[in-house]
């Protein structure tokens, strides 16, 4: 989103003891043509059922608003619903979008996440996802895979992390730009 330059994100969330939750993320950064801009904002709301023992269950809805600057400024809005099962170390979620990325494609995205804490302040994590078109516009029937693995370290209210990411197949845009298939993402977060 930020043309491989640093970006700033603000994430605000609220979890109620009933299981209801809501939140949002706004990301800003440099653009190729218009300088600093809001690149994306996401809002979400859902409900989690957390029994005293066993896995938790989660359902919700997310709305994405993305400003795509790779070819020309284009605004993309789409909504998805999701459901998942979560444990202390694993999560499985399935997302459905009736108009993924404003392409006319109906998609299902399945993701599997894993997390492990070898020490109190260190977390290892990994993710695998599969995006599958299931209908809609005929030309939008290409599967996409994504993988990531990383490590984070907590320092009081600050967290730093390094994440390796991979996508397949590579996306090629109308102006000839190509998404990098592999990237190292460095993140610093402050919690208040």
Please characterize this protein's 3D structure:
With 192 residues, the chain is an all-beta fold. It folds into 2 domains: 80 residues; 106 residues, no CATH class. 0% of the residues lie in helices and 70% in strands. The protein has no helices and 11 strands. An 11-stranded antiparallel sheet has the order 1-2-3-4-5-6-7-8-9-10-11, with no helix packed on it. The mean pLDDT is 88.
Write the layout of secondary structure elements.
Elements: E1 8-15, E2 20-31, E3 35-49, E4 56-68, E5 74-86, E6 90-100, E7 105-119, E8 122-136, E9 144-155, E10 158-168, E11 182-190
Characteristic key phrases:
192 residues; mainly beta; 2 domains
Largest sheet, if any?
Answer: 11 strands, antiparallel
Helix and strand element order: EEEEEEEEEEE
Strand-residue fraction?
A: over 45%
Helix content: under 10%
Structural class: mainly beta
* Sheet with the most strands: spatial strand order: 1-2-3-4-5-6-7-8-9-10-11
Helix count, per DSSP?
A: 0
Structure summarized in a few sentences:
The protein has 192 residues and is mainly β.
């Amino acid at each position: 989103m930020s043309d491989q330059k640093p970006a700033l994100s603000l994430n605000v969330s609220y979890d109620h003891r009933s299981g209801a939750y809501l939140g949002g993320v706004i990301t800003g950064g440099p653009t190729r043509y218009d300088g600093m801009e809001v690149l994306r904002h996401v809002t979400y709301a859902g409900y989690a059922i957390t029994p005293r023992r066993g896995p938790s269950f989660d359902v919700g809805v997310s709305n994405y608003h993305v400003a795509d600057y790779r070819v020309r400024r284009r605004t993309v809005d789409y909504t998805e619903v999701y459901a998942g099962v979560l444990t202390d170390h694993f999560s499985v979620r399935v997302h459905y979008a009736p108009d993924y990325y404003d392409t006319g494609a109906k998609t299902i995205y399945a993701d599997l996440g894993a997390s492990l804490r070898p020490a109190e302040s260190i977390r290892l994590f990994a993710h695998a996802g599969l995006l599958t078109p299931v209908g809609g516009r005929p030309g939008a029937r290409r599967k996409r895979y994504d993988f990531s693995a990383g490590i984070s370290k907590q320092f009081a209210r600050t967290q730093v992390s390094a994440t390796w990411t991979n996508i397949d197949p590579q996306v090629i845009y109308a102006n000839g730009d190509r998404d990098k298939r592999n990237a190292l993402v460095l993140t610093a977060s402050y919690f208040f």
